[in-house]
Design a protein that fits this description.
The complex is a heterodimer of chains A (about 220) and B (about 300). By secondary structure, chain A is an alpha+beta fold. Helix content of chain A is about 30%, strand content about 35%. Chain A folds into 2 domains: about 140 residues, D-3-phosphoglycerate dehydrogenase, domain 3 (60s Ribosomal Protein L30, Chain: A, 2-Layer Sandwich), CATH 3.30.1330.90; about 70 residues, 2-Layer Sandwich (Alpha-Beta Plaits), CATH 3.30.70. Chain B contains 13 helices and 1 strand, in the order αααααβαααααααα. Chain B is globular and about 55 Å long. The chains are: A alpha+beta (about 220), B mainly alpha (about 300).
Chain lengths: ~220, ~300
């Protein structure tokens, strides 16, 4: 059975008008913010495919920006996202891309803060469900439905074992894991989805391992 | 407590002498592992969202795109004057259905039932009946579980998205859910609920999803009213004892087969039907070129 709960039918509660073009965009913005780990000072939001054509009528721009500022899909403040951003001094812009994406509803969000930059690509799958499919050039698959660690590390032997050892020792179960690299021996990315959230001390322990460059924690 | 289709649901209800709502509630308790009280309070929250959404819509709203709005208030004011063809439950149901969908188009907070595009149908019918039948919120919460049981069966045996099955899958499903819930609210039997569901869905078969500029506005908003009216019509027939010649599960399967054989141009692509009319093209040009922005 595809649908498991009565609340898949009576619900979700969301700000309209469209579950894929509005609620999905809020969720992608929200996940991008969580991956960035803080509020960006500047954001450039790129729309591809169907989003590039219809984003104004569906308020996909307002929605993505609202998510980026931490508003949830049912926050009544979403329509005021432009004003909230101005008050916060968040510098935002939107770009309609003409490139044909793999998925029709694709958003790329470039986020900037003082000494930080990150680019996140997400797709809206329909019914409010989304998937993050690229972070800083690394391909991945992240639904945001479970806690996750994104560990940027030097592509060297033992780096993966060091991390999984720490998780095992602390009784944190891995539900999904993938490793990708751009070039042999250079920077690589481990994506680890876990059943439990990863507490601060374990997060620090992982960060202090050799070969680990940067760790992004996605909590729910 | 499990049911996969309408035949199993009716059988289960008759065997245990329970209603659709209780079967759905027990299923949710069994599978989710969440406290019984918590499940009820979650549904109560959905009802509150529906009520607030209706209230907001009835005040008169303009859609975010600037294309539509204000019709719920127009109908409601007309109803209050009393000089109308039907009045009562009928006009109340359609004005609430439109109010909630106008609130959706105006970026208000809504509860997708089962989708955002069809969110006005079930609350339109149930909130109008709450008033006319003098029912409590607890009664309406139960009716939402009954509506949910129908939606659960349709979603798992067919589809509920316009992009896959056309409007019949969205407003059609919502109308079938509302019809069954209305019958249960009035004290009808499980088999009468199933007949109401079958009759309501049959009358919506073949409806395309071809909104102007791809937005959830034209014809979606008015079609929520038609979905609510159709639900009341089917519920009255079922309560009178009318039986659907085609059993409910076969109607649901027919809806699915019609949906997947519909041309893509009629499935939420804004390429065919009303979207490709002269007016549709005009709005597409206006809204897609990005000159209009109603803040």
């Amino acid at each position: 059975m595809k649908y498991q709960s009565v609340f898949d039918i009576i619900g979700p509660v969301m700000v309209g008008p469209s579950s894929s073009h509005t609620a999905g965009a809020v969720r992608i913005g929200l996940l991008a913010r969580k991956l960035f780990g803080r509020e960006p000072e500047k954001a450039v939001i790129h729309f591809f495919g169907s989003f590039a054509k219809t984003y104004k009528g569906h308020a996909t721009d307002v929605a993505a920006l609202a998510g980026l500022m931490g508003l949830s899909t049912f926050d009544g403040g979403i329509p005021n996202a432009f004003n909230i951003a101005k008050e916060k001094g968040l510098d935002y812009s939107f770009i309609e891309e003409s490139a044909i994406p793999e998925h029709p509803n694709t958003i790329v969000i470039d986020m900037y803060a003082a000494d930080k930059f990150s680019s996140v690509k997400g797709v809206s799958l329909g019914g409010g469900l989304v998937e993050i499919c690229e972070v800083d050039g690394f391909a991945l698959k992240l639904s945001g439905e479970s806690p996750a660690l994104l560990i940027f590390h030097i592509d060297a032997y033992g780096a993966v074992a060091d991390v999984t050892h720490i998780l095992a020792k602390n009784k944190i179960n891995i539900s999904h894991m993938e490793v990708s690299r751009l070039e042999k021996g250079r920077l690589a990315l481990m994506v680890i989805e876990t059943d439990q959230s990863v507490p601060d001390d374990i997060f620090s322990a992982i960060l202090s391992q050799p070969n680990i460059e940067r760790v992004v924690r996605l909590s729910l | 407590m499990k049911f996969r289709n309408m035949r199993e649901l009716v059988q289960l209800c008759e065997d245990r002498n329970i209603k659709f709502s209780q079967a759905m509630f027990e299923y949710e308790c069994d599978t989710s592992g969440i406290d019984r009280e918590k499940i009820i309070s979650r549904m109560a929250d959905k009802l509150s969202v529906m009520k607030l959404s209706a209230e907001r819509g009835l005040q008169g709203l303009k859609s975010y795109s600037g294309m539509t709005g204000g019709n719920a208030k127009l109908i409601h004011d007309y109803m209050l004057k009393g000089d109308c063809l039907t009045g009562g439950v009928f006009l109340n149901a359609i004005s609430i259905a439109i109010a909630i969908n106008e609130n959706n188009a105006a970026m208000g907070v809504i509860c997708a039932t089962p989708t955002a595009g069809s969110c006005g149908v079930v609350p339109g019918v149930l909130l109008a009946l709450q008033k006319s039948l003098n029912k409590t919120d607890d009664d309406i919460i139960k009716a939402l579980f009954a509506a949910g049981a129908v939606g659960y069966i349709i979603a798992n045996n067919a589809v509920i998205s316009g992009a896959t099955g056309g409007c019949q899958a969205e407003v059609g499903s919502a109308s079938a859910m509302a019809a069954a819930a209305a019958v249960e609210l009035k004290g009808g039997s499980p088999s009468q609920c199933a007949n109401a569901c079958a009759i309501a869905l049959k009358n919506m078969l073949g409806l395309s999803c071809d909104p102007l500029a791809g937005l959830v506005e034209v014809p979606c908003i008015k079609r929520n009213a038609v979905g609510a009216a159709n639900a009341l019509c089917a519920a009255e027939m079922a309560l009178a004892g009318v039986i659907s010649y085609v059993p409910c599960d076969e109607v649901i399967d027919s809806m699915y087969r019609i949906g997947i054989s519909m041309p893509l141009a009629l499935r939420e692509t804004a390429l065919g039907g009303l979207a490709a009319s002269e007016t549709g093209k005009k709005w597409k040009e206006k809204l897609w070129s990005g000159n209009s922005h109603n803040e």
